[in-house]
Structure to design on (365 residues):
């Protein structure tokens, strides 16, 4: 009958002719099937709520709901859609069989039926259904294993890049939490932009996640800048500042080497864009490319504001920290020149949250 262990497969029979129900019950009982019989489609549909069969033998021409309609309803319900349906009918025209398959049937038995044919078709389709379910479960299990491995790889990559970012930060004379804060502040600002539906075509949940992880990479290029420039307590000369400015391009080039291996990784792609564009300015006077307005990637425009907020409000070897109020005032002044006006507007909605994040994640100088 069935391959593998006998699990008392359950077959539902739906036929408005009592004699057909009786004969089919006897045939299937002899083969070890559990059988549930109903003389109408309405009764069969109600019975499904008490327990699902492994297969349904379904008459077509019945009073009330036809077999076609019963099958159509089943296929629209996610819980019952996978149950195989074999139609039973005295109608033998090709059009009738085509409609049966179109409504979702897996097979068609013409009345009067033969016991051997019923047993063979029922057994075949129940075995196929079992194998289909087993394959689906295996695929889901395999996908879970793959997802876990991908997650582990991603986390290890994030940890490695985070360590490099922290190393660059520590060389800047800081042993604080600048890189941590930039991720938190970028996420807070991006969530506000998402809530206000500003740049709705660009910001989705994945963008929010990616910018949170990618923001700490913005200054990764500073690892290539010499200590004499990076740690200089006073104002940089013009030549020194030009050297300092190269950290944006160096950071982008460093991350592009990772991007070449993972070209479809949205986190890495965002990291490259942030590293290269976070010093660009809305009015085109920034570096390294002098991009203007929306030529600057959205992530770079968000990072530009966050970087200024955190830099101004933080103590450095060459300066004291400005107050939150002073920092907000500086950002307001930069609206439309240094910063994207819409991003400044969003910042002003959450500036108190910026102050909280800054306080909760203070530096240890």
């Amino acid at each position: 009958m069935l391959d593998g262990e006998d699990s008392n497969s359950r077959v539902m029979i739906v036929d408005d002719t009592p004699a057909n129900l009786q004969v089919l019950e006897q045939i299937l009982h002899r083969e070890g099937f559990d059988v549930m019989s109903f003389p109408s489609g309405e009764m069969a549909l109600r019975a499904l709520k008490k327990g699902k069969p492994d297969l349904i033998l379904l008459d077509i021409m019945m009073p009330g709901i036809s077999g076609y309609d019963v099958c159509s309803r089943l296929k629209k319900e996610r819980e019952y859609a996978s149950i195989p349906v074999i139609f039973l009918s005295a109608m033998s025209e090709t059009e009738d069989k085509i409609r049966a398959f179109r409504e979702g049937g897996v097979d068609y038995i013409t009345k009067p039926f033969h016991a051997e044919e019923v047993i063979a078709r029922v057994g075949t389709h129940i075995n196929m259904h079992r194998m289909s379910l087993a394959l689906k479960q295996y695929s889901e299990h395999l996908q879970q294993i793959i997802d876990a491995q991908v997650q582990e790889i991603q986390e290890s990559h994030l940890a490695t890049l985070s360590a490099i970012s922290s190393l660059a930060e520590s060389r800047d004379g800081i042993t604080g939490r600048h890189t941590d804060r930039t991720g938190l502040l970028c996420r807070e600002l991006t969530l506000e932009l998402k809530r206000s539906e500003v740049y709705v075509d660009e910001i989705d949940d994945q963008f929010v996640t990616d910018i949170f992880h990618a923001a700490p990479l913005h200054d990764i290029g500073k690892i290539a800048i010499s200590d004499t420039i990076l740690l200089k307590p006073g104002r940089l000369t013009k030549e020194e500042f030009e050297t300092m400015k190269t950290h944006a391009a160096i950071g982008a080039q460093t991350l592009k080497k990772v991007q070449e291996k993972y070209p479809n990784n949205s986190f890495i792609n965002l990291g490259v864009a942030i590293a290269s564009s976070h010093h660009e300015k809305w009015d085109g006077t920034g570096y390294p490319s002098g991009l203007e307005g929306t030529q600057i990637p959205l992530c770079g425009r968000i990072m530009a504001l966050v970087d200024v907020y955190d830099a101004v409000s933080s103590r450095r070897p060459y300066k004291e920290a400005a107050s939150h109020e002073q920092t907000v005032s500086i950002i307001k002044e930069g609206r439309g020149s240094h910063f994207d006006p819409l991003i400044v507007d969003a910042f002003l909605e959450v500036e108190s949250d910026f102050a909280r994040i800054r306080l909760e994640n203070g530096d240890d100088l």
Remarks:
- Residues 115-171 form the longest helix (57 residues).
- The domain at 10-141 is CATH 3.40.50.2300 (Rossmann fold).
- Strands lie at 10-14, 34-38, 55-59, 85-89, 107-110.
- The radius of gyration is 34 Å.
